[in-house]
Design brief:
With 132 residues, the chain is mostly helical. It has one domain: Winged helix-like DNA-binding domain superfamily/Winged helix DNA-binding domain (Arc Repressor Mutant, subunit A, Orthogonal Bundle), CATH 1.10.10.10. The protein is 65% helix and 11% strand. It has five helices and three strands; from the N terminus they run αβααββαα. It has a three-stranded antiparallel β-sheet with strand order 1-3-2. Helix 1 packs antiparallel against helix 2 and helix 1 packs antiparallel against helix 4. The longest helix has 26 residues.
């Protein structure tokens, strides 16, 4: 059962990776390696640079994140920050995912919420459509 749960969580992470990254950036700006490490630490899943950096570039192209170079360390790093468009997408998506969870629960999948799936892992409380 635990193996199946892990497989489901990995599949969800792959599908929602861009949103997980935006959620991390909502808390504070991060460079790519910090994002990779945070995902691994919080979810136990490893997504390497060949997955994360192209996704960050795509999020930047779409205007959801912006980047600046941090040249204060020995090694220059590109630091990503969530934009207001990214915050808007994140809020809209949280509401949509909550609706999906509530609908799944209503058709017999038991009590299911985004907080059960993601909130406790990334240190935030996900609010439903009514702000609860």
């Amino acid at each position: 059962m635990e193996k199946t749960l892990r497989e489901v969580q990995n599949k969800l992470m792959r599908g929602l990776l861009d949103l997980v990254i935006l959620q991390f950036l909502k808390s504070n700006p991060m460079h790519g390696y910090q994002i990779i490490s945070s995902i691994r630490r919080n979810f136990g899943v490893y997504f390497g640079p060949s997955t994360i950096y192209p996704l960050l570039s795509l999020l930047e192209e779409k205007g959801y994140v912006e980047s600046t170079w941090d040249l204060t360390n020995q090694r220059p790093r590109k630091v990503y920050t969530l934009t207001s468009e990214g915050e808007g997408l994140l809020g809209c998506t949280e509401d949509s995912l909550n609706v999906i969870c509530h609908k799944l629960a209503s058709i017999g999948m038991g009590k299911l919420s985004l907080n059960d799936i993601f909130g406790k892992h990334i240190g935030t409380t996900v609010k439903g459509p009514n702000g609860r």
